[in-house]
Specification:
The protein is an alpha+beta fold. Helix content is 29%, strand content 24%.
Length: 129
Amino acid sequence: MHPETGEYNAQQAPDDQRICNLLATVIDSNLPKAENKIWHAHPVWFLDGNPIVGYSKLKHCVRLLFWSGQSFHEEGLKKEGKFKAAEARYTSVDQVNVDDLTRWLAKARDLQWDYKNIVRRKGRLERIR
C-alpha cells in the first residue's frame, strides 16, 4: 500500500479504516501495475495516467468509485455522475464482497474510458479499451 494511502486510511474511524484497508489491499493485489496516489484528497489508482478506481470517506459511508464502472454492467454498482462512473457504498467491512470487487477490478483494467484527456477533449469521453 502506498504510504499516503496508509495515512489516509489511518485517519478514518476504526470501522471505516477496516473498509479502506480491505479495499486498498484487494485493489493493490489485483492491479499490480497501477500507480496509487492521493488525488483530490482521496486514494486513487491509475493505469497509464488514467484514473481507474478509488475510494473516499463520505459522511455515512465509504464510497468505492470506478471511473468506467457503468460499462461493467454490474448490479452491485450504481451510476454516479454524468459520465461513465459507478460506485458502491459500504458502512461495514462485512458488506465488501471480495469476489465482486475482484471481478470489478478485472473489468476496470479491461474496460476504460479516457478520463486523462477529458479536459483536452472539452468533456467528451472516448473509450480506450
